[in-house]
Amino acid sequence: MCDFDRQYNQLMGLVNDYLYNLLVQMERYPVIIYDSIEYSLFAGGKRLRPIILLSTHSLLEGNIEESMPLAGGLEMIHTYSLIHDDLPAMDNDDYRRGIPTNHKKFGEGIAILAGDALLNLAYETMLENALLYQDRLVRHIGAINTIAQAAGIRGMIGGQVVDLENEGKRVTDVTLKYIHDHKTGSLFMASILAGISLEDPPEYISRALQEYGRSLGLAFQVVDDILDVTGNYKELGKITGRDRDKGKATYVDKYGLDGSRSIVKELYERAVDQLAIFGSRGKFLGELASFIINRHN
Amino acid sequence: MCDFDRQYNQLMGLVNDYLYNLLVQMERYPVIIYDSIEYSLFAGGKRLRPIILLSTHSLLEGNIEESMPLAGGLEMIHTYSLIHDDLPAMDNDDYRRGIPTNHKKFGEGIAILAGDALLNLAYETMLENALLYQDRLVRHIGAINTIAQAAGIRGMIGGQVVDLENEGKRVTDVTLKYIHDHKTGSLFMASILAGISLEDPPEYISRALQEYGRSLGLAFQVVDDILDVTGNYKELGKITGRDRDKGKATYVDKYGLDGSRSIVKELYERAVDQLAIFGSRGKFLGELASFIINRHN
Asked: Would you identify the CATH topology of the domain B3-293?
């Protein structure tokens, strides 16, 4: 196993342990909502957003124990957005990560409430953690606020709305970019910005990390569009071609497969260029970018 | 117009102005989500939770300008819960406050996202306000955390889940009390607790206010159950008897109309008794309790 895999798996294990312990400590009543939350929260997610936050925070010499609840919060927000996105009134997907979607397993009512519960639990978790660092409270509230802005109407939810409104329509480049920047890009950026908020690095470092995050977030989404066409059910865990069937706006539609692959390459290079200032300490984030663009699911 | 009506209307006007100005300052893109949010947020709500918070905070000699964003946050959380509760997969209601429910007007997808957006916007709003009071940040985070706990799985959402799970079933007294305490009671309590968090009064004052909030929250819900049977569409703005038709657990079912009215009277008296320590300064909260139990919608 190479260094990157070992580091990635280690961070993923820490995130999984954190989320597991958080839920295990709760009262588990009513049982069904905990079952529903756990079903989606432990469905084999790659924990990309938490890992970006933790590794950014670590690069800035922060203590990842302090940022773990923010990383967990990001993953809860991401998971809630998937549960709601899969609902019949939204994307109407029956499978995700190779298993039935939350509403297929628990019914729509519980799936809606499980999403609501995860969004709210993210804030409960991040706020309680903030109260443990009273001498650094302003930084924590700044970090939580950054995540809140990214998750909301001016971020991820805005992207979901424009996506939903444009199903089956031919969209402009500007609209396509808006959807991708907001629906996926916002939380990626927040993973970086939250780490920055906690450690307040010099401006040139902050700028480089933000540009890394922006490029990476967009690359992630273009790869998603490519995989919807080239991937297969076994690797992806969901039925491919769904976006195309639903007339969703995608990069492949707009720029073709080759054009989209060129965009990914360009974005990857722009992301990695930003890491030069960190020397060998930036290695993990560079390999993370490579991992994200070369993934098969 | 009596003193109480004037004071109530003044506070309601301040809350409405605050929410209106908050939304007007935003970018309004994508338009439909703002339309959907405004539709439900300005559908004629009584603003009970914000008014309880503001008047508690004022009684504790706090400045209500400081607590207004928390009051607004409470109302956004309450409104999101109504939008999601009305969905076909939940209560499946077509009318609320005399107009079509959010999903009837905007479709289910937008209604789900409008609810998500309101919940998230509540946190954005409360966090940004907290950052304006850096010397009182611990108190603000305490107040926001109190609201977060009340809104979440251990509070309101827990109540919604148990309510959903028990539709059409005969429930025990314990379950009925759980649903009411959590589904409605939690946010009522949080309106009181948030004011307490901001001003940190002596223990005996805190205890009295909490007991007031607990009794009032439960009384509110029992009155709701009574109105579902005795109210009419014109006054209530929604079809009555819906809870009964859906086999929902209600106090009227369990204790009959007269029994439920006795419970309300008892709870009202317990609430008002707590206010004695405030003398004439507790007058508004006392009249608010009377307003809540004597309402017709």
From this structure: Farnesyl Diphosphate Synthase (1.10.600)
Each domain of chain A, given as residue ranges in start order, spans: 3-293
Q: Do B120 and A90 touch (CB under 8 A)?
A: no
Q: Where are the alpha helices (DSSP H) in chain A?
A: 3-24, 31-41, 48-59, 64-85, 102-106, 108-130, 137-151, 156-165, 173-180, 186-199, 203-230, 233-236, 242-245, 251-273, 283-293
Measured CA distances, A198 to A39, A53, A152, B91 (Å): 31, 11, 21, 42
What the block records as the tokens of B136 is 């009182």
The pLDDT averaged over each successive group of 10 residues in chain B (297 residues) is 92 98 94 98 96 98 98 98 97 94 98 98 98 97 98 97 91 89 94 98 98 94 91 66 71 92 97 97 97 90
Q: Which residue of A has its CA nearest to B148?
A: A124
| Residue among B35, B134, B153, B172 with most chain A CBs within 10 A, to mutate | B153
State the pTM of this model.
Answer: 0.96
The burial of B31, by beta-carbon neighbours within 10 Å (0-12 exposed, 13-18 middle, 19 or more buried), is given as exposed
The interface predicted TM-score of the complex, written ipTM, equals 0.95
CA distance A219 to B236: 52
Query: Given B27, B148, B162, which is nearest A154 (Cβ)?
Result: B27
